[in-house]
Amino acid sequence: MDKDHLYYHAVDLLKDIITIPSFSREEQSVADKLEEYISRQNFTPNRIGNNIWIEASAHDANRPTLLLNSHIDTVKPVAGWNKDPFKPVENDDYIYGLGSNDAGASLVSLLHSFFLLSRKEQPYNLIFLASSEEEISGKNGIESALRILPSINFAVVGEPTGMQPAIAEKGLMVLDCIANGKSGHAARNEGVNAIYEAIQDIEWFRSHHFPKISPLLGEVKMSVTMINAGTQHNVIPDECRYVVDVRSNEYYNNEELFLLISQSVKSTVQARSFRLNSSGIQPNHPFVKRALLLGLLPFGSPTLSDQALMPFPSVKMGPGDSSRSHTADEYIKKSEIREAIEIYTKLLDDLTL
Predict the structure, then answer these.
(1) How far apart are CA 312 and CA 235, in angstroms?
(2) This prediction's pTM
(3) Mean pLDDT value across residues 91-107
(4) What's the CA gap between 167 and 280, in Å, rounded?
(5) Do the Cβ atoms of 245 and 172 come closer than 8 Å?
(6) In a 10 Å sphere around its CB, with 0-12 CB exposed, 13-18 middle and 19+ buried, how is residue 40 labelled?
(7) How far apart are CA 146 and CA 24, in angstroms?
């Protein structure tokens, strides 16, 4: 197939997968569809769980390995859809449907770029991976596939960035915090109000600034997002629980931030995970240099992706716009898919890693 036919096939595949509900941990049907589609293109798909990957040719240990990755799962549709989220609706250049922007367009664009790039020998081993459970950072997603794949030297992660390269991405750590007090009757001057104890720490989370500021990602950002305390109006609460969303930059790993936070607040602090650290790529990487030659603008992304689970250099880049993700009447433009295939192949063809 020439590029035009690949583009039309990519659009058709996107419309097909929109019709298949593929919520996180429920991706089997869309994984089956993708596996069958890849087989019809004369490639042999590999599979673990709901993760599907293919290799362009026999692995050569003397060459670096480049991974093309995007995810097949979606969030559940929010309230406010005016269209059926599982029925692809075309309106001129637009395709509406759940997962069209995040990240179906990136998925089909990277897959069909893989088909183009694999037509000739490249100076690297080329792998395409469609992974699951990205929206929940699940352990049966990309982590399970990476344990089986060959060692990766560099990855392009397909997420909606307007086809601009995100060369850095903030990490995520969620903290469960407990401030303790002493119960008493609200009518008398007794007890220690756990809410008031929590307020002091919450103010610290609101106002504290870690000194290392990234030129691409800015400061570490901490946001108290949930709070719960008390059993009834006339009882001084002896416990106040709250949740903190911590977005790290490349200068702090999550375990380091956890230690600094624990030493600074009175509350008991428990991290749900340290897995999702900040990630990215050096500005002088060959991919970034080629992107600059094409007039693309590297930037730092505040949102999380499977990059956080990749222990190797990576860049996040794909068609669409992050602001459309997880919204009612989500859409992608067909012209964005065509542009993505063009740009991916220009960036990656004969790239020396």
Answers:
(1) 52
(2) 0.92
(3) 97
(4) 5
(5) yes
(6) exposed
(7) 18
Residues in the chain: 353
- pLDDT value of residue 136: 95
What are 282's two structure tokens? 């050096």
- pLDDT value, residue 140: 97
Question: In the numeric block, which tokens belong to residue 215?
Answer: 């030129």
Which segments within 138-287 are labelled E, that is strand?
154-157, 166-169, 171-180, 184-185, 221-229, 235-236, 239-248, 268-271, 279-280
Instruction: Give residue 286's pLDDT.
Output: 97
Rounded mean pLDDT of 136-153? 96
Does residue 103 have a cis peptide bond before it, meaning omega lies within 30 degrees of 0? yes
- For 62, 167, 176, 203, 223, the CA distances from 244, given in Å and listed in that order, are 45, 26, 7, 12, 5
Locate tokens 């108290």: which residue?
Answer: 224
Note the pLDDT of residue 164: 98
- What is the spatial distance between Cα 308 and Cα 320, in angstroms, rounded to a whole number? 21
What residues does 270 pair with on adjacent strands? 176
Arithmetic mean of pLDDT over the chain = 96
User: Are 30 and 72 spatial neighbours (Cβ–Cβ below 8 Å)?
Assistant: yes
Q: Does residue 240 surpass a pLDDT of 80?
A: yes
For residue 133, what are the CA distances in angstroms to 137, 227, 338?
6, 27, 27
pLDDT of residue 1: 66
Q: Which residues of 183-199 are buried (b: 16+ CB within 10 A; e: fewer)?
A: bbeeeeeebebbbebbe
Round to whole Å and give the CA distance between 78 and 121.
44
> In sequence order, what are the residues at sequence separation of 6 or more whose Cβ sits closer than 8 angstroms to the Cβ of residue 147?
none
User: In 10 A of CB 156, how many CB atoms?
Assistant: 22
- CA-to-CA distance for 202 and 217, rounded, in angstroms? 23
Signed CA dihedral, 78, 82, 85, 90: sign only: negative
Q: Where are the alpha helices (DSSP H) in 238-310?
A: 254-262, 286-293
Kindly tell me if the per-residue pLDDT of 174 is higher than 90.
Answer: yes
